[in-house]
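Quick sanity check, Transport permease protein:
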Amino acid sequence: MSAPNAALTQEGGAVVLDPVRSAVWRAAVSRSSVELKSFFRNRQSLVFTLLLPVVLLVVLGSIFSGTVPGTHTDFKQMFIAGIIACGVMSVSFNGLAISIAIERDTGMIRRLASSPMPKSAYFIGKVARVAVTGTLETLLLLAVGVLAFGLPLPSTAARWETLVWVLLLGAVACTLLAVAFSSLIPNARSASAIVTLPFLVLQFISGVFFPYSQLPSWMQTVAALFPLKWMTQGLRSVFLPGDFARVEPAGVWELDRVALVLAAWCLAGLALSFLTFRWRGPNVR
């Protein structure tokens, strides 16, 4: 059943509108519209969340050259695959955690929770925001990668399928973790700094800027605990030649493990969100 028809039920052979589902659907659509308008009208969100990965790709892609040691693969191809994973994490984790922290600190979330709006509509709006901005971010980075740096698009249907499920699982995991992580942010002023620090660290230890197998073993161990490492590994399998897998730590792409770890983070993020999310911030009365 399509989403709009979800509010329709059968009654005596006639199709009638379920008032409860209809109210949730209207509220979710309205809330999604507000989320997207507030994102695209906020210059800070556009620059630091959506455009920063594109700028990084252009600048660093113009600096790095040569091939990855032990392979015939252009370094830029490996770098671009990692930047796409970072772009998705940027909109689903950074942008979302910061926006929730600001809304909680200013009392907006408490006011929404006190309004007649179904609470589920708030989260549906956030998911819609991540879906639209994540798709736009991926398309932007792909376009720059292909047009400016000659990134080859996936050559088989299987690689396109891998691209979709890696980005989908990664975005869901990062979105749920953003909801949970927002509870660690004490106020709106510190939101950007607190969220950016782990994001930057994970970028450097997850094989985005440097070949993962060349990182110190302890960095590889730490990075393997978090989703970004597995997102970048899954995307390398999409964009890089098959023989590049021999320089991965296991010598293969490990796509089964990539799916397993990202799915586990989705479940963990969901559990943490239920346990930690609060509608009222400490500074809100």
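Posting the structure with no commentary besides this: The first strand starts at residue 8 and ends at 11.
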